[in-house]
Amino acid sequence: MNLRNITLLILMVTGLGACESLITTIPESKLPKVESKLVVQCFISPQSARINVVVTESVPLFGEATESENVVFNAVVKISDGTKEATIPFDTESLLYTIERAAFPIAAGKTYTLSVTDGKRSVSAKCTVPRKNVAVKTYTIDSSYNASEFNPDTTLTVKMSWQDIVADTNYYRVRASVDLEYSIPAGTTVQEFREMRIRNRFNFNWDETIGRNDFVSDANLDGTLFTSPIGRCRLPGVIVYDFGNDRKFTIYPKSKIIMVTMDVYNTDVHYFKYHRSLELRRNSDNPFTEPALIYTNITGGLGCFAAYNSGQVVYRP
């Protein structure tokens, strides 16, 4: 080994040692003291059947989450439109604070205040429901089949368009789901084995094309005809049960579409910024980039209280 290589090796070892020393010698007294905060998540809409509020608490620095994911069970949760107020009760089964729409209707154009307290900490937030919704103008529903020997599957695709609301600043989100009837195997023995028909709802996942996905704003695109990315939903596949002794049973799903539901949300800015920040956090897998901050409009805490107005179309074969 020549002198130049020896020098480089010494520098590398010295640098690594310095990094390790920096990490291990910071005293705990110099670390920031971060207290646990209330975390609130609630999205209201005139079309939603219920108002659901998730209340948890953040994990302090070097803390650990509990099995119940830090759900706060004893909070007092209230929602108000400035004239009428309702206390939202806690549901032990869903671990949500929830109330039916009939008990507290949400109206387009109104501003709502949400307040949460657990006796020690109090937080609040405001949001305004967008006045208008948009209708799906056109849509295309199709299917494709992948005949791969190792992973054959049938995929249902959907694409839709809508007209931007002129003169307003708008933020949109597209969503779609399919209600499907199909066959699954039932029974654990040869004698009991049979085909059973069930129904389930599956959500579509959206392709990302040139940075676009299911969230879009009309910045510099006022009055434009918007088109969604392609949404994809993988349908149930063939299931083969082998009980030995050449006793094999094949269950073909024989999928039947009951309906496809397509939504375009006209959201407020809080809904848009919060969900976009969540996406940036999920996509920031580069260890050398700074972590993306999660947007919040909760005064005194974390999370998001936001609103949307949904336009919906339902396709039934």
Shape: globular
The structure class reads mainly beta
Q: What portion of the residues fall into strands of 2 or more residues?
A: 35-45%
Q: Report the C-alpha radius of gyration, rounded.
A: 26 Å
Number of helices: 2
What's the N-to-C terminus distance? 76 Å
Number of domains: 2
Counting DSSP E segments of at least 2 residues, the number of strands comes to 20
- Kindly state the mean pLDDT as a whole number? 84
Would you write up a description of this structure?
It is built from 2 helices and 20 strands. The strands form 4 sheets. Strands 1, 2, 5, 6, 11, 12, 14, 19 and 20 form a 9-stranded mixed sheet that branches. Strands 9, 10, 13, 15 and 16 form a 5-stranded antiparallel sheet that branches. It has a 4-stranded antiparallel sheet with strand order 4-3-7-8, with no helix packed on it. The longest helix has 22 residues, at 3-24. By secondary structure, it is mainly beta. Strand 9 (136-146) and strand 10 (153-163) form a beta hairpin. The protein has 2 domains: 32-130 and 268-309, no CATH class; 136-267, no CATH class. The chain is globular, with a radius of gyration of 26 Å. It has helices at residues 3-24, 269-283, and strands spanning 38-44, 50-57, 76-80, 85-88, 90-91, 96-100, 111-117, 122-128, 136-146, 153-163, 171-186, 194-203, 205-206, 215-217, 225-227, 231-234, 239-242, 248-251, 256-267, 302-315. The chain starts with a helix and ends with a strand.
